[in-house]
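Tutorial handout. Part one gives the primary structure; part two gives the three-dimensional structure as tokens.
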Amino acid sequence: MGLHAHQFGGFDHDAVAAGLGVPADARLVAGIAVGVRGNPEEVPERDAEREHRVRSRRPLPETAYDEQWGHAWPGLDPSGPETA
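Part two.
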């Protein structure tokens, strides 16, 4: 179908939750945009610069735990960009 998806977290969580009628015991943490890619030449300069900056991610062993909180899951394979 030629569609692409992009996960994002930078949005007004409370306003979107209110607009969608999300109950108080649930919390929005991310959204996913799905659509056809646009023309890169039409992207505003500010957004184009942001898209090309170097990104860092927290290492998976600090995020994915085994049966005990804080103990890295032993089955982790490195993924994503290297972090310094």
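Part three, for discussion. The chain has a mean pLDDT of 85. The radius of gyration is 18 Å.
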